[in-house]
Amino acid sequence: MLEATARRLQQAATALRSGDHDRLEDAWLAGGSARERIVRSRWSDPEWAPFTVPATWAALLALGAQGVGLRNLRAGQDGTVMGSRTTARR
Predict the structure, then answer these.
(1) What is the band of 71 on the pLDDT scale with cuts at 50, 70, 90?
(2) Mean pLDDT, residues 33-40
(3) Residue 64 to residues 22, 30, 58: CA-CA distances in angstroms?
(4) Lower Cβ count inside 10 Å, N or C end of the chain?
């Protein structure tokens, strides 16, 4: 999402420099929509989904490295850990 926003800002800067007012207006409107999505994503409560992973530090640390939030962790069956994890937003 951030890369797409940066790309749109670059396009808006190009339109501004060239005096292309129609493209600049389109970029301005698209930028407002992108900002709203970012704000919604940043300030809304996360969505949670059940998950099961092998009961290893490596598996849990891999989720953490991806920025995944975890809660309600408990031992599962057959050497697993169960709980809830955050899901990606669109």
Answers:
(1) very high
(2) 84
(3) 44, 32, 10
(4) C
- Average of per-residue pLDDT across 38-49: 86
What does the block give as tokens for 81?
Answer: 């850990």
Q: Please give, one letter per residue, the 3-state secondary structure of the chain.
A: CHHHHHHHHHHHHHHHHHCCHHHHHHHHHHHHHHHHHHHHHHHCCCCEEEEEEECCHHHHHHHHHCCCCEEEEEECCCCEEEEEEECCCC
Are 82 and 73 within 8 A, CB to CB?
yes
**From CA 45, how far away is CA 62, in angstroms rounded?**
22
Give the domain ranges of the chain. 2-43, 48-86
Residue 13 tokens, joined:
């800067």
Please count the CA atoms within 13 angstroms of the CA of 68 that sit on its side-chain side: 21
Q: Stretch 11-26: mean pLDDT, rounded?
A: 89
